[in-house]
């Protein structure tokens, strides 16, 4: 699993800000209206989405594996004048965070799990830490995205103080890809230092997700695609699951 140590420094610069609006809008449409509802955001990263949720009226806790990401999240929350506890932890073990009315996990973070056993274990952890009647929303890459769109994908970013090359290749396991990232980051002396990271992602077919969710205890599951309230098609890029306990 990627550490994001270097990635954290440029993550916000390469993320499309409009995605946070889309995740927020989707969440507000599908989370039941409840005053001061407790929401846990898994894989909260640098905290942008957590702040959006806090400003929308939720009692938010953010959890992420990377302390580097959380350090940025805490600075961002302070700048936004909101109070959000950010917890360093693994979504495979939520024993330290309590229970919540809602849990979200966006930006295909589930796809970073090593295999379907870990995916199932995450679903079990979420189910156990959801209050009765609670809702779990997450998104993943579709198999079309990993099999047809990503292989051969290349993205370059150039800014004054950093540059990035992002190439994606098909991996060995079914519906899996490898993202190879190279960063050139400028230091205080004006010199650029190179950093390399590898991020591995894997998704599964819809039936596999349905089975894993049911095994975890979720019996009410709805699936949507591409931030819209529509069913997935053969060419949908991102699947959204809305699961009720």
Walk me through the structure.
By secondary structure, this protein is α/β, with parallel strands linked by helices. The chain folds into two domains: 7-142 and 204-244, Vaccinia Virus protein VP39 (Rossmann fold), CATH 3.40.50; 145-202, N-terminal domain of TfIIb. The chain is built from seven helices and eleven strands. The protein has helices spanning 7-14, 18-30, 48-55, 67-79, 116-128, 143-149, 206-216; strands at residues 38-42, 59-64, 86-88, 100-105, 130-141, 154-158, 162-170, 176-186, 192-202, 220-225, 238-244. Strand 1, helix 3 and strand 2 (59-64) form a beta-alpha-beta unit. It starts with 6 loop residues before the first helix and ends with a strand. Residues 40-134 form the Methyltransferase domain. InterPro entries: Methyltransf_25, SAM-dependent_MTases_sf. Keywords: Methyltransferase, Transferase. This is Methyltransferase domain-containing protein.
Overview features:
245 residues, alpha/beta, Rossmann fold, N-terminal domain of TfIIb, methyltransferase activity, SAM-dependent_MTases_sf, Methyltransf_25, transferase
């Amino acid at each position: 699993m990627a550490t994001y140590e270097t990635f954290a420094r440029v993550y916000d610069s390469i993320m499309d800000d409009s995605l946070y609006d889309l995740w927020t809008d989707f969440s507000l449409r599908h989370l039941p209206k409840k005053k001061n509802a407790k929401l846990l955001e898994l894989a909260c990263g640098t905290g942008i989405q957590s702040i959006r949720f806090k400003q929308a009226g939720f009692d938010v806790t953010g959890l992420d594996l990377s302390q580097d990401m959380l350090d940025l999240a805490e600075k961002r929350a302070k700048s936004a004048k909101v109070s959000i506890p950010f917890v360093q932890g693994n979504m495979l073990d939520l024993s330290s965070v309590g229970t919540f009315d809602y849990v979200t996990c966006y930006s295909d973070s589930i796809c970073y799990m090593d295999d379907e056993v870990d995916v199932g274990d995450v679903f079990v952890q979420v189910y156990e830490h959801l209050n009765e009647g609670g809702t779990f929303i997450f998104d993943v890459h579709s198999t079309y995205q990993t099999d047809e769109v990503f292989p051969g994908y290349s993205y370059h970013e150039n800014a004054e103080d950093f540059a990035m090359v992002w190439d994606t290749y098909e991996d060995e396991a079914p519906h899996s890809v490898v993202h190879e990232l190279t960063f050139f980051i400028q230091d205080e002396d004006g010199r650029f230092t190179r950093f390399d990271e590898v991020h591995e992602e894997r998704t599964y077919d819809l039936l596999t997700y349905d089975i894993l969710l049911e095994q975890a205890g979720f019996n009410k599951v709805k699936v949507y695609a591409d931030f819209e309230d529509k069913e997935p098609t053969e060419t949908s890029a991102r699947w959204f699951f809305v699961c009720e306990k």
